[in-house]
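To illustrate the input format used throughout this study, we show a single complete record. The first block contains the structure-token representation of the backbone; no residue identities are included at this stage. The design step must infer an amino acid for every position from geometry alone.
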């Protein structure tokens, strides 16, 4: 858990170095995804350093949610960020409205769905989550299929796991 839970009440995470699964291949995939999430976050000039890292849940090579505490290089950057990686575009999210991995994943789906709708309608907006995909209808449709599965299956599974841990 983060050091000061009175100021930062996040639930459903554990230290990133504690990623463990009975299945060795699944564990290896999740550890690689953790490295991918760290690399993604450190690729931004506004991330000076990662101070703490937590695992929120995941399915190897499909999707994983991580929570990071960073040293921001600029004062207007949040110290705590969620990172979602997997077989989909990586993204970081602020923690303001997402206090658990299932909420972070639901926020990711919501933001990516907004991106999809803008692409499908041919709109351009600066107020969208940055997505490292070509802005084509085909990419939007493929991402939409993955998001549907995550919304219907993975978010409820994350939420059920969090309920057991509470």
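Output of the design step:
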């Amino acid at each position: 858990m983060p050091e000061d839970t009175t100021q930062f009440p996040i639930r459903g995470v554990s230290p990133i170095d504690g990623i463990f699964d009975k299945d060795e291949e699944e564990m290896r995939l999740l550890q690689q995804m953790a490295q991918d999430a760290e690399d993604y976050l450190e690729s931004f000039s506004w991330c000076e350093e990662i101070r703490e890292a937590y695992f929120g849940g995941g399915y190897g090579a499909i999707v994983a949610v991580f929570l990071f505490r960073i040293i921001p290089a600029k004062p207007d950057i949040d110290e705590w960020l969620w990172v979602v990686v997997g077989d989909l575009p990586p993204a970081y999210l602020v923690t303001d409205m997402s206090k658990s991995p299932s909420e972070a994943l639901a926020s990711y789906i919501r933001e990516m769905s907004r991106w999809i709708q803008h692409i499908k309608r041919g709109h351009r907006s600066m107020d969208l989550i940055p997505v490292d995909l070509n802005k084509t209808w085909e990419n939007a449709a493929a991402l939409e299929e993955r998001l549907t599965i995550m919304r219907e299956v993975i978010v409820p599974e994350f939420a059920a796991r969090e309920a057991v841990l509470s």
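Structural context for interpreting the output: The helical segments are 24-42, 101-120, 137-165. The radius of gyration is 16 Å.
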